[in-house]
Design goal:
Number of domains: 1
CATH architecture: Roll
Shape: globular
Order of helices and strands: EHEEEEHEE
Structural class: alpha/beta
CATH superfamily: 2,3-Dihydroxybiphenyl 1,2-Dioxygenase, domain 1
Distance between the termini: 39 Å
Strand content: 25-35%
CATH class: Alpha Beta
């Protein structure tokens, strides 16, 4: 019997206890991701979930939280320049990195110090 991977169902980003309002502001209001209701049996753990294309982004509460400053999700975006402008207008610092063949990209830091990458295929 053989198996194959068919995609990524979700990515989880850690955040400190009490992160929900800031997560909703950044990922929901600023980035425009739609929040998903968490399953009832997980609500007590805190955090929140968002939909990103066909995948989910889970913001999970971690005890003794330390931000991920190297490991990061890379979100594909249509009209990356428009997102860049919105982030800049929202007071979020854009961090440039060398380009990757066929892709335009930049990084930001979420409210918890986690590294986030946005990319668009050229």
């Amino acid at each position: 019997m053989s198996y194959s991977f068919t995609g990524i169902e979700h990515v989880q980003i850690a955040a400190p206890k009490g992160c929900e309002d800031q997560a909703r502001e950044f990922y929901g209001s600023v980035l425009g991701m739609k929040e998903l209701p968490k399953p009832a049996n997980l609500v007590s753990r805190g955090g929140c979930w968002f939909i990103v294309g066909q995948q989910e982004l889970h913001i999970g509460v971690q005890e003794n939280f330390t931000p991920a400053t190297k490991a990061h999700p890379g979100f594909l975006v249509q009209n990356l320049q428009q997102l860049r402008e919105k982030l800049t207008q929202s007071g979020i610092t854009i961090k440039e990195e060398p380009s990757i063949d066929g892709r335009t990209r930049f990084f930001v830091t979420d409210p918890f110090g986690n590294r986030i990458e946005f990319l668009e295929f050229n």
